[in-house]
Amino acid sequence: MQQIKTIAAIMIILIFAASCKKETSEISAPSPTNQKKVVEEKNLTNGDFKKYSYDAQGKVIKVESATNSWNIEYLPSMIKVTRKRISDDKLLGTDEYSINASGRMISSVSRSATGVVAYNYEYEYDNSGYMIRMKESYANGEVYEDFVTNPTGNPVTVKNYYNGILNDVTEYYYNADVKNLGTGTYLISYYGIEGFAGKIPQREISEFKRFDASGVLSYHKINTFIAGSDRTIQKYKSTYPGQGLVHEWSVSYQ
Questions:
Q1: Residue 238 and residue 221 in contact, taking contact as beta carbons nearer than 8 Å
Q2: Which of 47, 73, 118, 246 could disulfide-link to 80, CB 3.0 to 4.6 Å?
Q3: Longest dimension (CA), the chain
Q4: What is the pTM of this model?
């Protein structure tokens, strides 16, 4: 059931979320509220896009792509996301995120359109507020766990385990000259809700590599950025050396 980690994330993303496993995490997130608000990210290569709508308080309340929409409700101790297909407004499913007093999600449950539970998540943070562990459980007994190494505010490795056995390892590298747009990894690719997944990395990811359990490179992406005078991203390009693919994105702000 595990998807190729594109964000998933995370995210993502865009820089699409390199470690996302589910559609609900594969949304690139706008910048936090103390930065400019992203209103659209457009893939100049194939025309794909993500659009973001905000309420009067600056909270994101809707994300749209060409095919799907994600409507976000802020409830006491919970954030609920309703997924729909745009062409016929068909309900695709819901995701309910339990949050703590700091506004960080601590667990979540994803349901199909008929209410059947598809999977559950648990989230853990360090004392500084960075996510360090995420556990994904299925009704059939399958369990995925991610363990994050984050020594300086930017995650450097994520180890993924399947039913307790090492599945893969992802290494992250950062651009020191570009502020974090809020899209860099699945750890912060949850709809652009500030603080939802803990503190975000300080810089944008310039490169990441994924290795399987035996150490063989299985996925590689390089990001290059064009930033404005305020060092926010105006365009970026994602190159996939192992696949011969290149995608270029533009970013629009409020």
A1: yes
A2: 73
A3: 51
A4: 0.80
Structure-block tokens of residue 236: 């970026």
**70 or 19, higher pLDDT:** 70
User: Taking a C-beta distance cutoff of 8 angstroms, is the pair 60, 191 a contact?
Assistant: yes
Q: Which of 71, 61, 76 is nearest to 193 (CA)?
A: 61
Q: Would you say 247 and 16 are in contact if contact means Cβ atoms under 8 Å apart? A: no
Residues with Cβ < 8 Å from 52, sequence gap 6 or more?
Answer: 30, 37, 38, 39, 40, 60, 62, 63, 192
- Report DSSP letters for 7-19, one per residue: --B-------BTT
Q: What is the 3-state secondary structure (H, E, C) of the chain?
A: CCCCCCCCECCCCCCCECCCCCHHHCCCCCCCCCCCCEEEEEECCCCCEEEEEECCCCCEEEEECCCEEEEEEEECCEEEEEEEECCCCEEEEEEEEEECCCCCEEEEEEEECCCCEEEEEEEEECCCCEEEEEEEEECCCCEEEEEEECCCCCCCEEEEEECCEEEEEEEEEEEEEEECCCCCCHHHCCCCCCCCCECCCCEEEEEEEEEECCCCEEEEEEEEEEECCCCCEEEEEEEECCCCEEEEEEEEEC
What DSSP string runs through 137-163? EETTS-EEEEEEE-SSSS--EEEEEET
pLDDT at position 185 over 90: no
203/206 Cα distance (integer angstroms): 9
